[in-house]
Fold this sequence. Notes:
Layout (H helix, E strand, L loop, with lengths): L1 E5 L4 H12 L12 E5 L9 H11 L3 E4 L6 H6 L1 H22 L2 E7 L29 H16 L3 E6 L2 E2 L6 H12 L1 E5 L3 E2 L2 E2 H12 L5 E4 L6 E2 H12 L4 E5 L19 H5 L8 H11 L6
Parallel strand pairs: 1-2, 1-3, 3-4, 4-5, 5-10, 6-9, 7-12
Antiparallel strand pairs: 8-11
Helix pairs in contact: 1-7, 2-4, 4-5, 6-8, 8-10
Amino acid sequence: MKVLVTGANGQLGQDLVDAYAAGVARETVATPTADVVGLGHAELDVSDEPAVWAAVRDVEPDVVVHAAAWTDVDGCEGDPDRAHRVNALGSWWVARACEAAGAAMVMVSTDYVFDGTGGARDGGDPRPYDEFQPIDPLNAYGRSKAAGEQLVRQTLAEHYIVRTAWVNGARGSNFVRTMLRVGRERGEARVVDDQIGSPTFTRDLAAAIRELSVTGRYGTYHRTNAGTCSWYELAAATYELAGVEVDLAPQKSSELDRPAPRPAYSVLSDRHSVQSGLTPLPHWRDGLRNLLVELGELDA
């Protein structure tokens, strides 16, 4: 099996390259040895359609794992045209090139395609979103990813769309690494406690994507680490496990002056994925512990 990974220099992209190159022992299906080619932004700008076609033609992959995206949520809000070019059109170009080459495609998408109400009605409690609920993004980033999903679906039958959330890895900028830096530099932090989701760790997510990509069961899947928390609770767990003394206080989203609104509740249900035979991801606290070990914050 030959695999092309876009966005290969990102935190998820790097772990995807590792996962395909090394194999994943936890898979529930047999996976052939993968010959993986990773292209970062310097090698492949996915908003450049001719470049995408040339890359797919030259690599001749069986599967393209499309992890390239513009994930700066507030940046997307300020420049929705760029967000659409990269996240929507870029995904379309990859799907079109895959269709012409006879390759399958994995598109990495986001919990931000949902509005954050969790489908609650009549004042009831929110419920985790499943793959079959209507989407209704609140911000330009979510809209660009939703458009990308639609373009992939209408272009390429052999696709997997993997929605995930709150991604953190050892290589790249993310919430956990930012909290560690801020905590040590300032000795204090204020973090929102009114946004609820499922932190997801790139080692676990990369293994889950590799597992899915050889099943031939095309469609949309939710893949996050198990359990839920607020950003405040994730920060508290990070400091607790890493042994960093920080004056940590909660705050409300309304206190922050950010251009893009965020969904208040974006927990993704994995029921469809697990009942389809895929391996459940570990609890987010286990993923966090493993990340801190990888960062050298904890002993293995």
